Amino acid sequence: MEIWINPACSKCRSAVDLLEAEGAEYTVRRYLEDVPSPDEIRAVLDRLGLEPWDIARTQEAVAKELGLGGWPREADSRERWISALSEHPKLIQRPIITADDGSAVIGRTEEAVRDALSR
């Protein structure tokens, strides 16, 4: 199990605290420092069953600078979104937990983190 976190994020800290409390084996990826490649983003999207616009933080300043809110949300635009997420990792929703069964969840709630733990 791996968790992508921003240590400054309270949801990330809560998710890590819950993983610790449950004695889970996991690795931490500080994705702002260890930026995911486009291939890694594609892989995590497949595991999440989501599209890149589903995990984009569209209220971030960089999103507004890029005009992300106006980008098409369709298959032809998928690679543009993935490139933006890789070039500006702050846009990636957090925390993302990759579960041992090959799936992934966005662990913003205790229920989501527990779901990842049960997989």
Could you walk me through the main structural features you see in this protein, from its secondary elements to its overall organization?
This is Arsenate reductase family protein. Keywords: Oxidoreductase. Pfam families: ArsC (PF03960). By secondary structure, the protein is of the alpha+beta class. It has one domain (2-117): Glutaredoxin, CATH 3.40.30. The chain has five helices and four strands; from the N terminus they run βαβαααββα. It has a four-stranded mixed beta sheet, with helices on both faces. Strand 3 (96-98) and strand 4 form a beta hairpin. It is globular. The model has no long low-confidence stretch (mean pLDDT 96).
Summarize this structure briefly.
With 119 residues, the protein is of the alpha+beta class. The chain has helices at 10-21, 38-48, 61-66, 78-87, 110-117; strands at residues 2-5, 27-30, 96-98, 104-106.
List keywords for this structure.
4 strands, alpha+beta, single chain, Glutaredoxin, 119 residues
